[in-house]
Amino acid sequence: MANVLYVKVNPQVDEASFSTRLAQVFLDEYKTANPTDTVTTLDLYKETVPFIDGDVLAAWGKAGAGEELSAVELEKVTRMGELVEQFLQADKVIFSAPMWNLSFPPLMKAYIDNILIAGKTFKYTENGPVGLASDKKVVLLEARGGVYSEGPAAELEFTQSYLRTVMSFIGVQDFHLVVAEGMAYTPAEADNILAKASEKAKEVASTF
């Protein structure tokens, strides 16, 4: 039995989000193929996800110096610790997110900052950083209004390439991608685009 973490990154209602709808197709197929696995949902727009701000930086500095943290500082770094431990406990991680303004929503970056923690998901060695999460499988289910996988806009794709690099940095090599793109570019084809991506999602989910 595997422990699966589903990280949802969209504040819209499910029916209005292509990435969430794509993720639901994936999850339905995955649960059918793996009925005994435990799936935990982390909705970044409904949970507390600390940003690296003045409090967090101060807390890290104080912790290194052995100084006492303020209540706010302690609350934020404690929450960061909870999020990275949750990530570490997962055997498989499912991300669903849209591309907004050539990148992920801001809470996706905030979440990444919460799990890229030295000594937890990677460590520094004399030969450079080494990932500590090599035992995980990760899939990204992404929706894009335009077309960025090929053509003139391909050089503007900063989403899956970023997440793939981050996961590789912490040791994850088993990385999968399902993209639905072009819905805003060709809105009349939006349903067909999602349907095609959904078939790909089912295919990946069946063996994930």
TrEMBL record:
Note on how the cofactor is bound: Binds 1 FMN per subunit.
Residue ranges constituting the Flavodoxin-like fold domain according to the UniProt record: 3-203
Entry keyword Hydrolase: no
Residues binding FMN: S17, F18, S19, M99, W100, N101, L102
Top-level taxon of the source organism: Bacteria
EC number: 1.6.5.-, 1.7.1.17
Quaternary context: Homodimer.
Name of this chain's protein: FMN dependent NADH:quinone oxidoreductase
Organism: Priestia megaterium (strain ATCC 14581 / DSM 32 / CCUG 1817 / JCM 2506 / NBRC 15308 / NCIMB 9376 / NCTC 10342 / NRRL B-14308 / VKM B-512 / Ford 19)
